[in-house]
Every structure is written in C-alpha cells, then in structure tokens.
Write a structure and sequence with these properties.
Strand order of the largest sheet: 3-2-1-4-6-5-7
Number of strands: 7
CATH superfamily: Spore Coat Polysaccharide Biosynthesis Protein SpsA, Chain A
Helix content: 25-40%
CATH topology: Spore Coat Polysaccharide Biosynthesis Protein SpsA, Chain A
Distance between the termini: 42 Å
Largest sheet: 7 strands, mixed
CATH class: Alpha Beta
Shape: globular
Radius of gyration: 19 Å
Number of helices: 8
Number of domains: 1
Length: about 240
C-alpha cells in the first residue's frame, strides 16, 4: 500500500515521522509519498536526501502551495498501490494506528474509507470550539455520522478516491463523499499529539470562511446523486 503525506514547511517534523512509519509498517510492502506543497524551509531537500537511505520513500513537489486537498490528490495520483493511508506531515498524527486502519480495509471488501477521530485535541480552546461547531453542523446537514473529519489519519481505496469529485478542502468531506458513492465507512479513535516544530498553516477564521460554501456545495452534490447500476460488458461466447 501507499502512505501519502501532505506537507508544507515540515522539514523538522518529517524525518522522525518517517522513522515511526517505517517501524509501524515493518514487514509490510509499502511506499511513502511526501507531497511538498510549495515549502520554503528546505523540506524538499531534507526528504530528497532521505530517499538515498529509504528506498520506499518518494518525493513529489508542488511548485507553489495549493492546499492540503490538492497535495493529497497529487499523492494519490502518484501512488502505485490500491490501498492508500493518509497522515499529516506535522507529526501530530500517531502512525501507530496505520496497521489497524490498513487491516480494516483489507478485511472488509465493502469498506471504502476508515476515518481517524481524535479523542483529545491539542489546538487552542477557540479552535476546538469552532471545530466542534463546524463538525456538528456538517454531520447534521450531510448525515455522515462522523464527529471529526479534519483528522489527517485516513485509509481509502485508491480507485474509490479517484472517483470522488475534486475541489479545494474536499478532504474535510471524505465520509459524505464516500457514502455518496455507495461504500461503507468506519471510524477509529486516534491520539492527537503536540506539534514539535513549526506552526499550523491555518486559523479559525480562514477555515470557517472557506468551509461554509463548501459544506452547502457538498450538500448539493449529495442531493443530485443518482445511483448508477452495476454494469458488465457483454461478449459472445467463442464456443458458439
């Protein structure tokens, strides 16, 4: 499977995170794709140097910052494996949960998405309150039964992801979009850790201003969904 890691200015956080990922996925054939979203702190140079030591590590770089959803999309498009694990590059997501999320996808062919849900947040009180309000509104309007869609820990089938409509901030609506495609979703409680290096790339106001229009846009997408029946190519039996 492929681990996709969106990152912007995370030169200090990525090396120890990659070491943890390697430890957690020991014995598993995998690749990790770091998508450098236009960093200017030397993230690309740090990761490129590590690729000499870590044959499973790949670097893809955006010429300029395009946002987390775009970075995830780039990573998935470059991925070689049918199963995708997603984890943020800031080190706040704990890779210890990756094996369990992978196994959940492997064990259930009807499961399209596994969503991490943080038990305890290390954000400011204001950001936590704003997030709780936004998650409550989203869950009520979209019916995705997910209390925390912003957690970076997710597992998804590559083919399914590529069927989803792409738009900025779509990563916050994965559960609703996956349900829209007729797949099942599952949740797993995960640990949120304190950021060691750098700072968050967004605040409360900018996230809220973008989130509301997208929320109603996804609601519209759900309302316009029409189920497409399964199809099978018809062929003439060669023996007849």
């Amino acid at each position: 499977m492929s681990v996709v890691i969106p990152a912007k200015d995370e030169a200090g956080n990525l090396p120890p995170l990659l070491e943890e990922i390697q430890g957690q996925l020991a014995g598993v054939t995998f690749e990790a794709i770091v998508v450098d979203d236009g960093s200017d702190d030397g993230t690309d140079a740090a990761i490129l140097a590590l690729t000499k030591e870590l044959p499973w590590l790949r670097l893809v770089r955006h010429e300029k910052a395009a946002g987390k959803s775009a970075a995830l999309r780039t990573g998935v498009k470059y991925a070689h494996a049918p199963l995708i694990l997603m984890i943020d590059g800031d080190g706040q997501n704990n890779p210890i949960f990756l094996p369990k999320m992978l196994k959940m996808l492997q064990d259930d062919p009807d499961l399209g998405l596994v969503v991490g849900q943080r038990l305890k947040r290390h954000d400011s009180a204001l950001k936590q309150r704003a997030s709780k309000l936004a998650n409550g509104l989203r869950s009520w309007l979209l019916g995705d039964k997910t209390r925390d869609t912003a957690c970076g820990l997710k597992a998804i089938r590559r083919e399914l992801y590529l069927d989803l409509p792409f738009f900025d901030t779509m990563h916050r609506f994965f559960p609703a979009l996956v349900l829209r495609e007729g797949w099942q979703i599952a949740h797993i409680d995960v640990e949120d850790r304190v950021r060691i290096h750098g700072s968050s790339k967004y605040g409360v106001l900018d996230r809220a201003l973008v989130g509301l229009p997208d929320l109603f846009g996804v609601w519209w997408l759900l309302s316009r969904r029409r189920r497409v029946p399964s199809a099978q190519e018809a062929t003439i039996d060669a023996d007849r």
